[in-house]
Amino acid sequence: MRLLAALGVIGMLLLFVWERVDIVRVGYRVEQLKTQKIALQREQDELRVKVSALAAPDRIARAATEKLGMIPPQPGQVVMVSAADPAPVTSNRSPEVHVAKSERFWRKP
Amino acid sequence: MTGRDSCRGRRIVLAVLLLAGFTVVLGRLVHLQVLQAAELSVRADRQHQKAVTVEGIRGSIYDRRGKVLAMNMEVPSVFGVPASLDNPSGVARDLARVLHVRADEIEKKLRQERNFVWIARKVDPEQGRRLERLSLDGIGTVMEGRRFYPKGALLSHVLGFAGMDGQGLEGIERRYDPYLRGEKRQIVLQRDALGRTVFPKGLTEQGPSAGHSVTLTIDEVIQYIAEKELDDVVSATQARSGVVIVMEPKTGAVLAMAMSPRFDPNAVRGLSADRWRNRVVTDAYEPGSTLKIFLAAAALEEHAMKPDSMINAENGRMTIAGTVIHDHEKAKWLTFAQAIQRSSNVAAAKTAMVLGEERLFRYLRAFGFGEKTEIDLPGEATGLVKEPREWGRRTLASVAMGQEIGVTAVQLAAAVSAVANGGWLMRPYVVSEVRDGRGQLVAHVTPQVRRRPITAETAQTLGTMLESVVTVGTGSKAAVAGYRVAGKTGTSQKIDPDTGAYSSALSVASFAGYVPADDPRMTIIVIVDEPQGEAWGGTVAAPIFRRVAEQSLTYLGISSQEPTKVALMERPGIGPGIGPGIGMVP
Fold it and tell me: Between chains, do A58 and B154 touch, taking CB under 8 Å as contact?
């Protein structure tokens, strides 16, 4: 009986020590993850700054005109369109709409 | 003595010695843990715990569409510990290669008899990584927040800039510093023998909260359009400077506030205040003929004039108080509307005389001249509108022509907007909302009416007169194909600092107007200071108005008078069909 009690006390002590050690171990792991999170956050911020700088309107305009040879539309080349009231369907074919090249997929075949 | 007795004796001695040893240990334990407990506990805390002040990250600034205009980033600052360096000159050479700083300057710092020296603060992250790879003894880095303006000089005068320690010094950065600045908080870190942070307090300790983010009413694309068109003209006319404001007349929200020349807020060191001052709000100028808009508004509101009232323009020449007033175009009889179209100074002086000093002054003040517009930018000037008792014999005529009065560009923008929106003087503003670090709304700015200087009927009548300025008058170069434009040109002579009189060579060319005149969406003010050559408002400023308006209207998707109607079509896999938009004829 005495031996059992002694073993119980030792077991409790070992459990207490294990718990303390594990708390410290988890603490180190938490700190490690925090450091990792901060590093990733910094990387994300750095990338956000780069994306934002690359998306600056003057850079895009320069790339469009100098690299891609684009020019601003001249008077008469821009047509503002607005949606007409839905007309009764009498034909399979809609009036043709001229749109920017990148949006050609909108046009009905 | 028997062998058994001897063994027993040795055991007793051993027991006594052990007891004595344990007693000593116990005694020491009591001494340390009980008697010296308080003092040692403090000493241990000093060694294991480190209190550090951490500053929350400064909030970002966005344009109205959420594009980043200013943000903070943690970057390395490089320091040295001179005492622990064996070869300062070698280390200085290595550092100089990475940091692009002169080696002798770094070596001078490293040879100081100090424990800590800054070598370079807030350097590029890539430079920090290269330094880490070098792992130089006695050289270390700490992370600090640095302000970045990724769009460079775009909107620089409005954004302002923050100082090395993250405090807002100019522009939005200064005005909204209490919101943008992150909260400082002191946290206690528990460190082990290797200097690593150990838990206990770290888990429950809350870090400092980040600063709020600020969203502007400015649209970076319209801002870019305004800056580009202004730069082109300032450069072509070799002007001293220029300003363009684009404002929503119905709300007072500023869509663009462009200035030329600009500065890069990422590199303000060495720049004088003259370069980064926001002239739109800080500088007053004599507006010249653009002020005739408000003279006409007063005359119409007071029924002193009608658009068809006849005025004798005296063949473009009239003497007032010994000074001769000239018109650009000679004419005898003009209707009031024609007088505004042609910007007749003689007719303006006569209209002012009909109105009288008190009434003209009252209307100028009602339109917000001579007082702050209360725009949310620092350093706003009130301009200069003298009380009638201070007016000289010529002042009434001078004020009618936009002389002897000082207005800021933002006052002019707000006042023209009042004409555009049916008579309401709105408070101009550049910040639409403030959100905290978690994205929760902290403050939302709503349009604010200051007063109503004129009725809707007067505004409409005046609008029709201002449209004729563009269709047949001095502002023809401001006309935008497909849209109705209302506005007024202005060309004011500047005072020559040497003679103290109006100079024939120095002038300010301006145009103030709005578009579309039938449903105004943009008020645009253009001011070009000291353009060379043909320096008229109608030839220098009006074309800027047209180009900014053309591109901005297209960008905003504002339909022209007769938009092309198209049938709705199904857009496979995306949505119900195309709505109003922009198409380009191939």
Answer: yes
Q: Which residue has the tokens 């800021």?
A: B408
Q: Which residues contact B19 (CB under 8 A, 6 or more apart)?
A: none
Q: Are B583 and A106 inside 8 Å of each other by CB?
A: no
The question of whether B289 is a catalytic residue gets the answer yes
Backbone angles phi, psi at B117, to 5 degrees: -135, 140
**Distance (Å) from the C-alpha of residue A79 to the closest C-alpha of chain B?**
5
Tokens of B219: 């649209």
* Interface size between A and B, measured as CB pairs under 8 A: 151
pLDDT value of position B565: 57
Longest CA span, chain A: 103
Task: Please name the residue that has the structure tokens 């902290």.
Answer: B442
What residues make up the domain containing B422?
A: 220-262+279-556
The CA-atom distances, in angstroms, between B430 and each of B172, B256, B281, B373, B441 are 9, 9, 12, 12, 17
B579 occurs within a structural domain: no
- β pairing state of B564-566 and A78-83: parallel
What residues in B contact A52, CB-CB < 8 Å? 67-68, 71, 150-151
Q: Which domain holds residue A79?
A: 2-85
Domain count, chain B: 2
Mean pLDDT for all residues in chain A: 78
B569 vs A24, A61, A106: nearest CB: A106
Interface predicted TM-score (ipTM) over 0.85: no
Among residues B242, B244, B238, which one has the least CA distance to residue B226?
Answer: B244
| Mean predicted confidence (pLDDT) in B26-37 | 89
Q: What percent of the residues of chain B are helix, what percent strand, and what percent coil, each to the nearest 5?
A: 40, 25, 35
Q: Is there a contact between B235 and B229 (Cβ–Cβ < 8 Å)?
A: no
The pTM of this model reads 0.80
Query: Structural domain tally of chain A?
Result: 1
Rounded Cα distance between B481 and B484, Å, is 8
| Cross-strand partners of B188 | B51
Assigned token pair, A40: 């990733």
Chain B's closest residue to A46, CA to CA, is B73
CA angle B303, B309, B310 (to 5 degrees): 145
Least confident piece of the model among B55-69, B200-214, B562-576: B562-576
Torsion of CA A45, B61, B446, B456, to 10 degrees: -130
Rounded to a whole number of angstroms, the distance from the CA of A68 to the nearest CA of chain B is 17
| Better-predicted residue by pLDDT, A105 or B521 | B521
Q: B523: which strand partners?
A: B247, B514
Q: For A78, which of B199, B224, B584 is closest by C-beta distance?
A: B584
Q: Is the peptide bond before B516 cis (omega within 30 degrees of 0)?
A: yes
Q: In this structure, is residue B80 part of a structural domain?
A: yes
pLDDT tier at B321 (50, 70, 90 boundaries)? confident
Answer yes or no: are the C-beta atoms of B179 and B156 closer than 8 Å: no
Phi and psi at residue B509, to the nearest 5°: -100, 130
Mean pLDDT score, B39-62: 79
Residues B104 and B239 both lie in one domain: no
Does B140 map to a domain? Answer: yes
Closest approach of A101 to chain B, Cα-based (Å): 8
Calculate mean pLDDT across residues B121-144. Answer: 85
Q: Which amino acid is at B343?
A: S
Asked whether residue B581 carries a pLDDT value surpassing 60, the answer given is: no
Subunit contact A24:B571, Cβ cutoff 8 A:
no
Q: Which of B269, B271, B276, B250 is nearest to B172 (CA)?
A: B276
The answer to whether the Cβ–Cβ distance between A27 and B199 falls below 8 Å is yes
* A82 at interface of B, judged by CB pairs closer than 8 A: yes
Identify all chain A residues contacting B224, using CB atoms and an 8 Å cutoff.
Answer: 57-58, 61
Q: Classify residue B270: in a domain, yes or no.
A: no
Question: For position B76, what pLDDT does the model report?
Answer: 85
